[in-house]
Amino acid sequence: MDSGNTAWVLIAAALVLFMTPGLAFFYGGMVRSKNVLGMLMQNIFAMGIVSTLWAVIGFSIAFGGDNAIVGNLDFAFMKDVTTLDGDIPGFAFFAFQMMFAVITPALITGATADRLKFGSYALFIAIWSIVVYAVAARWVFNGNGWIFEMGALDFAGGAAIHINAGLAALAVIMVIGNRKGHGTEPMPPHNLPLTVLGTGILWFGWFGFNAGSALAADGVAAQALVNTQLGAATGMLGWLLVERIKTGHATTLGACSGAVAGLVAITPCAGFVGGVAPLIIGSIAGAACYFALFIKAKMNWDDSLDVIAVHLVGGIIGTLLLGFFADTAVNGEFDGLFFGGGAELLKDQFVAAVGVGVFSFVVTYIIALAIQNTIGLRVEEESELVGLDQSEHAESAYTS
Amino acid sequence: MKLITAVIKPFKLDDVKDSLKEAGIAGITVSEVRGFGRQGGHTETYRGAEYKIDFVPKVSVEVVVDESGVDTAIEAIKKGAATGKIGDGKIWVSDVERIIRIRTGEEGIDAV
């Protein structure tokens, strides 16, 4: 057992956990003041329910047995996790992976903002974290998973987390419909300073997310950390540049959104690329995710806080660009198109993106529809107008 | 007795207050209000979506004066509130039927 590697993975697990409250603030600032506690609560609750379910069954579904599609109950209730002890303890890996499981469904809450019943959301996230996340994580992160076996690369979750959450978000909003007043009533962010705070916490935590995915305190982790910083930095610059050209202003929300878009895109690539690749990947993601904002208006999707534009599109960009920029001189076994590896990796990356995406969309749609048609997933109209803080939680965020 | 109401730019409040004090006005009531005149609103952009903000934040100042003090008060407000740019605001004058000082029960100009 390597104490340095163990120490880093444990710290990285804590960093990744911190991303979920960061995400809560990032989203919370963007909603109206009557819904801010509803948003914070959905995210904080994910830390409670998903961690518990991960210990009970999630980890086992993701990492138990050797089936290519789905795990078994070998590690249920954390039984025999110590059999995974190696360079780092099995429980260090278990904890690190747990934090990814927590934040992934929390990402969906940005699309469904302002209109989910809390109890139904609780049920949705419980089912989703086991049936969708744990299975997709197995495909991508477990050596037995079919996507991993195929040779596709996903360093820290471009497909397993961002494409997965992005298409799940689309499926849920298709089931629940648009907010009352969407497109006719202005719904500007109520507290952008909260969003900036959340961005800072997300960015900070993302070092654990990406550099921790090396599962070692080594050169790959250092490369991943630098790539993470540069992906975020150029993502911000790319977004701001096109925003400034298009609207005449560089906005605070744009700076935050661009940084997150860059972070999303660099996630699958973080430990597999080097040189100027992170600068190119971040810039492309920042600019492209800005333009992706306009998809929802064309399609009349009320993706309230742009989970599709930032996470789905950013995740697809990162997953596919890895097929061009992967460099075995940095890490891994496969070179991308630009490094003499031909188009094989790019094809695998495409299959990984489509495979996870289609699975996530279809299964999430079924889960959301089942909940909507039984206990109801969306709040009553009056509750929505009053706001989730009062109607769902009997609280107010701001009292004078 | 007359009530003078002035809707002004918020950042000019201190100047208006000083100007009214110099003119000998005994007290003023201030409230934060929103509205629009010819200035209209402004536009804000969030993630590419433009929001038209129709109601501009303003400050409303109210003073009660005797008939003889109306013009002095109006001049003082104008002096304090003017920037020369659009949106400087409006002043209007209305009749006050009665005015009572709560502590002493005095009425009319003695109560101001």
UniProtKB/TrEMBL annotation, chain A:
What are the UniProt keywords, alphabetically?
Ammonia transport, Membrane, Transmembrane, Transmembrane helix, Transport
Q: Which residues form the Ammonium transporter AmtB-like domain?
A: 7-398
Which InterPro entries does the entry mention?
Ammonium/urea_transptr, Ammonium_transpt, Ammonium_transpt_CS, NH4_transpt_AmtB-like_dom
Q: Which GO terms describe its cellular component?
A: plasma membrane
Q: Does the keyword Transport apply?
A: yes
PROSITE patterns the record matches: AMMONIUM_TRANSP
- Which one Pfam family would you cite for this protein? Ammonium_transp
Q: Where in the cell is it found?
A: Cell membrane; Membrane
- Mode of membrane association: Multi-pass membrane protein
User: What residue ranges are annotated as transmembrane?
Assistant: 6-28, 40-63, 88-109, 121-141, 161-178, 190-209, 221-242, 249-266, 272-295, 307-330, 350-371
Name a GO molecular-function annotation.
ammonium channel activity
- Family the UniProt entry places it in: Belongs to the ammonia transporter channel (TC 1.A.11.2) family.
Q: What is this protein called?
A: Ammonium transporter
Q: Which organism is it from?
A: Ilumatobacter coccineus (strain NBRC 103263 / KCTC 29153 / YM16-304)
The protein's gene is named: amtB
From TrEMBL, chain B:
Tell me where the signal peptide lies. Answer: none
Q: Which GO terms describe its cellular component?
A: cytosol
Provide a GO biological process annotation: regulation of nitrogen utilization
Q: Could you tell me which Pfam families the record lists for this protein?
A: P-II
Tell me the InterPro entries matching this sequence.
N-reg_PII, N-reg_PII-like_a/b, N-reg_PII/ATP_PRibTrfase_C, N-reg_PII_CS, N-reg_PII_urydylation_site
What does the subunit section of this Swiss-Prot or TrEMBL entry state? Answer: Homotrimer.
Question: Which family would the database say this protein is a member of?
Answer: Belongs to the P(II) protein family.
Listed name of the protein = Nitrogen regulatory protein P-II
